[in-house]
Amino acid sequence: MAFDPLFPADAFRRTDETPDAQFYQQPRFVTHIDEGAIAAVTQLYREYFPANGTLLDLMSSWVSHLPPEVPYRRVVGLGMNEQELRANPRLASYVVQDLNQEPQLPFEENEFDGAAICVSVDYLTRPVEVLRDLARVLRPEAPVVITFSNRCFPTKAVAAWHALDDRGHMALVKQYLLAAGSWHPIELLDRSPQPRRSDPLYAVIGRVQKP
């Protein structure tokens, strides 16, 4: 496992270090946050992703939470389970890839107008490498919208995630983007539904800056 020198060597260790392909072999046709938090994710996508744009749903599954009324030119998914990806009605195409094994994305430079990472960033063991290459495949000024809650598969979330609270998670993801370079400005948002009867929802959003 490769570690980024800006973070402690044990920051990305996990309780379960068995291959992720084995863990995600069986499809999970469930949502990992509740309806209120999902609505908050969808609203962020309305605000940040351009209509008729080309989008990358990174660490995707059977649902992308994109606003149903907004047309996109093309949505590409990259995830771990082919059955889930095949069932996603918003995807024009998909790639099955384990980013913890291969953080380089199989796409061209400047291919996408925006990217989403929904309730999955806590599982990345090489987040800086992934976000660095994500900047390559996004067009200048394109956003990445990274959302998360307080739920996870605990044995697969990295040690750094377990060590922090919700605010700490936002600060950690911001540090990932800063370490990757090419991301500015970076916004930290609490979009938790009010009153708080739903799952909390947090977002870190960066925009690509290229020379």
From TrEMBL:
InterPro entries documented for this protein: Methyltransf_11, SAM-dependent_MTases_sf
Domain Methyltransferase type: 74-145
GO molecular function ontology, one term from the record: S-adenosylmethionine-dependent methyltransferase activity
Organism ancestry: Bacteria, Pseudomonadati, Bacteroidota, Cytophagia, Cytophagales
Keyword Transferase listed: yes
Keyword Protein transport: no
GO biological process: one example: methylation
Protein name: Methyltransferase domain-containing protein
Species this protein is from: Hymenobacter qilianensis
UniProt keyword list: Methyltransferase, Transferase
PANTHER family to which the protein is assigned, alphabetical: OS04G0481300 PROTEIN, OSJNBB0011N17.9 PROTEIN
Protein origin, superkingdom: Bacteria
